[in-house]
Amino acid sequence: MPQSDPTDARDTPGSSVSGEKRRKSKNGESSRKRGYNDNTRLANGSTSHVLRRSSISKPGRDGRDEPTIKRQKRERRRRQTVEDGERDAASVNDDGNAEAGAAGALTRLDSPVIDFDGLSRPSVGTRERLEESPEEAAARLDRIKGAVRTLLECVGENPNREGLLATPERYAKAMMFFTRGYEQNVLDIVNGAIFQEGHSEMVIVKDVDIFSVCEHHLVPFTGKMHIGYIPNNAVIGISKLPRIAEMFARRLQIQERLTKEVANAIFEVLRPQGVAVVMQSSHLCMVMRGVQKTSSTTVTSCMLGCFERRDKTRNEFLSLINVNSS
């Protein structure tokens, strides 16, 4: 009768090296259920059922247990991220403008709410324009004239023909007029015209004509602005509200920012209970090009203080300027 191979007992599930069943613990649970690993490979290639405790008591996975290759890859990615960040930081020049990286990403810089040096936001050359001499102003006009002449040539026109001969100079003067808000200062416009009157009811100036230039396409957008505020004892000269709106409109703008800048400026100089600004305008960049919707109107608003907190106050303002009317 052939003898059985002793390895058969080892390879049979639930058996030990001697062929006996795995011993149970005192409480009757098998070692496998308690988290032991009994498959240990010996030097001769056989499997030994040595009871080895798994690390089930650890609250989390130990990073040292991670395979070496995976750990090295993670470390390389971390180093690459740090190097990319250092490289991006080094690409920012002294003026705070980020140079375009390899991916061509643009860095947007934060702007202050209102700058009483006359600049609503940091911009290249605006302080020089505010403080330039007559000679520097003439040199600026000459540069614009040269650029307009180049533009006329690029669109296929002859800048020397009669109708276009003086166009570069005319356009240069017109552009300086369109953007003369860069040469104005909020505090100079207000000029101390703030009076302690004890008035606490709503003050509204409606239908302020707005003419501005879209900064995206350099074409005009025009419309009406409605400005209201509730004084905190002090009132401002009534003509100062449209003058402040005009100053910010005479810059390269977008309607959303223009609305906020007017509201924030009034709030800063007057410190009222609240300020409300609503603007309705038509943009030639979407009337004579692009979607070409000639009857479309864009409406933006900015509510500060009590106009933002109280629905009743805000609705009263909107009703008085006829925005809520059908």
UniProtKB/TrEMBL annotation:
The keyword tRNA-binding does not apply. Residues 37-57 have a biased composition (Polar residues). One of its GO terms (biological process) is tetrahydrobiopterin biosynthetic process. Residues 1-98, 116-138 are annotated as: Disordered. It comes from the Eukaryota. Residues 144-321 form the GTP cyclohydrolase I domain. GO terms for molecular function: GTP binding; GTP cyclohydrolase I activity; zinc ion binding. Its EC number is 3.5.4.16. Keywords: Allosteric enzyme, Folate biosynthesis, GTP-binding, Hydrolase, Nucleotide-binding. PANTHER family: GTP CYCLOHYDROLASE 1, GTP CYCLOHYDROLASE I. GTP cyclohydrolase 1 is the first enzyme in the biosynthetic pathway leading to folic acid. This is GTP cyclohydrolase 1.
